Automatic annotation (TrEMBL), chain A:
The lineage of its organism: Bacteria, Bacillati, Actinomycetota, Actinomycetes, Micromonosporales. GO terms for biological process: transmembrane transport. Belongs to the binding-protein-dependent transport system permease family. It comes from Paractinoplanes tereljensis. The keyword Metal-binding does not apply. It comes from the Bacteria. This is Sugar ABC transporter permease. Keywords: Cell membrane, Membrane, Transmembrane, Transmembrane helix, Transport. It is a multi-pass membrane protein. PANTHER family: BLL4140 PROTEIN, DIACETYLCHITOBIOSE UPTAKE SYSTEM PERMEASE PROTEIN DASB.
TrEMBL record, chain B:
This is Sugar ABC transporter permease. It is found in: Cell membrane. It comes from Paractinoplanes tereljensis. The keyword rRNA-binding does not apply. One of its GO terms (biological process) is transmembrane transport. InterPro entries: MetI-like (IPR000515), MetI-like_sf (IPR035906). The chain crosses the membrane at residues 12-30, 76-98, 107-128, 140-163, 245-265. It comes from the Bacteria. Its main location: membrane. One of its GO terms (cellular component) is plasma membrane. Residues 72-264 form the ABC transmembrane type-1 domain. The keyword Electron transport does not apply.
Length: 287, 279
């Protein structure tokens, strides 16, 4: 066991040090910061940081706009994630069904939007949506895609456009790894294309679907680039539109202690949701 | 026979519709980038006329002392540098976790795996405060150093190393008198090459797309990556209408390197992407 201690040290240490510096310490630092508060002596006196315990967290839990933003990304996630992953799964199954010619082309064409950074995708779609900028006036004249009631779904379309192909590829690669003997057995049993997809393929790629779901949940809670860019296109997107925008605008005040508390709550929510989903699917898998 | 072909036609039709959905916006961006005198909304949205991409490009590259090219160079420096070095470090760590049995191995792996779930944006603010303390906020390093860390790369590295580097081979190398580190660099890295490309690609995309970290860290325009630069232009179009066309041309140029990388590394990501999901 001790035989290769120096080699192990050599392999693990560089990553380990950076991980500690730029992942672990910032997390503890954020928790630490969130427990402090600014005290002033008099109205214009010097500000000093004093330990405040859970003062910031009381503020977090009574902060209306923050919880509205949480509600908003929940609504977004409940609709957008199933639509995106459903389409990704559907397209992966089609690619794998043997019905499609030119698979290489479609795989590339669908994956290409993933090469577009979120900021750039949001700028591009923002132009396409804007009534006075869009070339597609027939669409933008009949519905204001940037109005308060629409803009969340306009953003959902941007995210969906970028990530369908990426998720499709992950699921498709998992489909390719399924041993073909299983399909032959199903064929002999008289299972058609749909039956094979439903009863064999989807259960076989469930781990891939779980993985993409967890990544999508994390991504949804972290929504930032799209709403931040859309603030230039639509007045309906406020500075507290998503939880991350709230963190950003709070730290710009600057109120770092409250912003840190927001970050901590957000990170915890992400952890709890991802783990809950993983546990839930694992339990289902056992049955 | 005709009824037999129906599913095939249906499937191809679905594929065609989605191809339009995915590619039309990109095609529009290309056409709009070539509109004469930046009249992005003039003429047909999907047919190039008076195509003058060259003129628009030279305008883009000259604007504000060539700040756009500077942003592109910054993005490449942040991204290529961080992804190359980060992939090596993550690969080494994942390799050690796969190929050696030592105390604390599973603990390290679980902590790193937990790191995958940490929202990167929850790190940006404390990182800014830390870098400010050592007076490194608003420098190249403030974006570069945190970008080196890729916990998902360690996870993939471990899976790939376990699958592609046989223990017997390492044992044989030991008998031949090769040291562990030398074996890794001469033998294991070759076996893990497709894995390294996949980790590199994921890392490259993540850093290239990163927005919150540079947004929080950087105040100096000359240090911006191209995403942040385009964002800042886009927020100024009301005061500077000439930026409207430049934003679109710039957006088009900014995705070209990524598209080239995707096309040239195709055979790697096509086979490698799914490995993370295989248990």
């Amino acid at each position: 066991m001790k035989r290769h201690a120096s080699a192990i040290f050599f392999f693990v240490t560089p990553f380990g040090v950076l991980f500690a510096l730029f992942y672990l310490i910032p997390i503890f630092y954020a928790v630490w910061q969130s427990l402090y508060t600014v005290k002033r002596t008099g109205t214009f006196g010097p500000a000093t940081d004093v330990f405040g315990g859970f003062v910031q967290y009381r503020e977090v839990f009574t902060n209306g706009p923050f919880w509205e933003s949480i509600e908003r990304v929940f609504l977004f996630g409940i609709v957008q994630v199933p639509v995106m992953l459903g389409l990704a799964l559907f397209l992966a199954l089609l690619l794998d069904s043997g019905l499609v010619k030119g698979k290489g082309f479609f795989r590339l064409a669908f994956f290409l939007p993933y090469a577009v950074p979120g900021v750039v995708a949001a700028i591009m779609w923002g132009y396409l949506y804007s009534p006075n900028l869009s070339p597609f006036t027939a669409v933008t004249a009949s519905a204001d895609l940037l109005s308060p009631s629409f803009v969340l779904w306009a953003m959902a379309n941007v995210v969906t456009w970028v990530y369908i192909g990426y998720n499709m590829l992950i699921i498709y690669s998992a489909l390719l790894a399924v041993p073909t003997e299983i399909y032959e057995a199903a064929k002999i049993d008289g299972a058609g294309v749909f039956r094979t997809a439903w009863s064999i393929k989807i259960p076989m790629v469930l781990p891939a679907i779980v993985l993409t779901t967890v990544f999508s949940i994390i991504g949804t809670l972290q929504l930032l680039a799209e709403p931040q860019v859309f603030r230039s296109f639509s007045s309906a997107v406020s500075s507290t539109y998503t939880p991350n925008l709230t963190v950003l605008s709070t730290s710009a005040v600057p109120n770092f202690h409250l912003a840190a508390a927001f970050s901590v709550v957000l990170a915890l929510a992400t952890f709890i949701l991802s783990f809950a989903f993983l546990k839930f699917t694992q339990r289902k898998g056992v049955q | 026979m005709a009824a037999f072909k129906l599913p095939k036609y249906g499937a191809m039709l679905v594929m065609a519709v989605f191809t339009l959905y995915f590619l039309t916006p990109l095609w529009w961006l290309f056409v709009a980038s070539g509109k004469k005198d930046g009249q992005v909304t003039e003429g047909s949205p999907l047919l190039p006329d008076h195509f003058s991409l060259g003129e628009n490009l030279s305008q883009l590259f000259r604007y504000n002392d060539g700040i756009f090219l500077r942003w592109m160079a910054n993005s490449i420096a942040y991204t290529v540098g961080a992804a190359l070095l980060g992939t090596l470090l993550a690969g080494m760590c994942g390799y050690a976790l796969a190929k050696y049995v030592f105390r604390g191995r599973e603990l390290i792996f679980n902590i790193v795996l937990g790191g995958v779930l940490v929202p990167a944006t929850a790190l940006a603010l404390p990182l800014f405060l830390m870098f400010s303390k050592v007076e490194l906020a608003n420098t190249f390093w403030a974006v570069f150093l945190p970008s080196l860390v890729n916990p998902f790369g360690v996870y993939l590295g471990r899976i790939y190393a376990a699958a592609s580097v046989p223990d017997e081979l390492l044992e044989a190398a030991r008998i031949d008198g090769s040291g562990e580190v030398r074996t890794f660099f001469t033998l294991s890295t070759r076996l893990m090459a497709p894995a390294f490309v996949t980790i590199f690609l994921f890392h490259f995309v993540a850093v290239w797309n990163n927005f919150m970290l540079p947004l929080i860290m950087l105040g100096n325009e000359r240090l911006f990556p191209v995403t942040l630069g385009l964002y800042s232009w886009n927020t100024q179009v009301n005061q500077h209408p000439e930026l409207r066309a430049l934003v679109l041309v710039g957006a088009f140029v900014s995705i070209v390197p990524m598209v080239i990388a995707f096309l040239s590394l195709q055979r790697f990501w096509r086979s490698g992407l799914g490995a993370g999901s295989i248990k």
